[in-house]
Amino acid sequence: MASSCCIKGNIHTGEPTGAYTTIAGVETYIAEPAQSSGKAILLIHDAFGFKFVNNQLLCDTFASQTNCRVFCPDFLQGDAAPIGVLDGSVAFDFPAWVGRQAVKLDETTNLVRAFASELRASHGVTSLGAIGFCWGAFPAIRLGASDMFNAIAVAHPSFVEVPKDIEPLRTNVLFLCAEIDQQFPEEKRIAAQQILTSKPNQIATFKLYPGTKHGFAVRSSPDDPVAFQAAQDAKSEAVDFFNSQL
């Protein structure tokens, strides 16, 4: 179950360069590479949703460094945590939000599946990756048990059960792990790694970032140089992973 660490962190500066569109009935932020190809990445956002500047800047980076179109749809369907939670300017009933999302995990996974299928069927996508952050890691892992994605990456996942959600995985996967993470603690990480690395035909890479907490890959602050540098390293690791897999 997710905890308050999921709604802590820093709002990054920068001007997103992508645009909004609607795909499969879902409002979506899309970042285009300089040269289009049949490759794409589906970014499954954290609790702050597809309009959160941090998530959009990640999309822009992945697009420019992987030559993939990057899609970040509103998979929370208008129920994202307000950005003001991060600076304390807005009160938010996070336990109630967690409760709403926990009972919709299957529904959300089906929404992600439908969106990914639409990309392949109608948008010229021939090679598709997914990267999920926090809440968004769950549907990525669930769909990693199918042939929907060519590769998946997840950062500090929430809601994931081990071994239940890990054993069915068959898609090549990259885990970007925080050292301190109530949602994916050491015992879960080690158990997941043992399960996946024992599969002879699957690539499963686990990267642990010392000195980091849950959420670092999206919401780290420059005031915490260890976590901020870890976020840059994790981003580069994901770029290299997708460049090798898609």
List keywords for this structure.
246 residues, globular, eight-stranded mixed beta sheet, 8 strands, 21% strand, 7 helices, alpha/beta
Walk me through this protein's architecture.
- With 246 residues, the chain is an alpha/beta fold.
- Helices cover 35% and strands 21% of the residues.
- The protein has 7 helices and 8 strands.
- The protein has helices spanning 53-66, 94-102, 105-122, 137-143, 186-197, 216-219, 225-245, and strands at residues 19-23, 26-31, 39-44, 69-73, 127-133, 151-155, 173-180, 204-213.
- The protein has an 8-stranded mixed β-sheet with strand order 1-2-4-3-5-6-7-8, sandwiched between helices.
- α1 (53-66) links the parallel β3 (39-44) and β4 (69-73).
- The longest helix is centred in the last third of the chain and has 21 residues, at 225-245.
- The chain starts with 18 loop residues before the first strand and ends with a helix.
Write a concise synopsis of the structure shown.
The protein has 246 residues and is an alpha/beta fold. It has helices spanning 53-66, 94-102, 105-122, 137-143, 186-197, 216-219, 225-245, and strands spanning 19-23, 26-31, 39-44, 69-73, 127-133, 151-155, 173-180, 204-213.
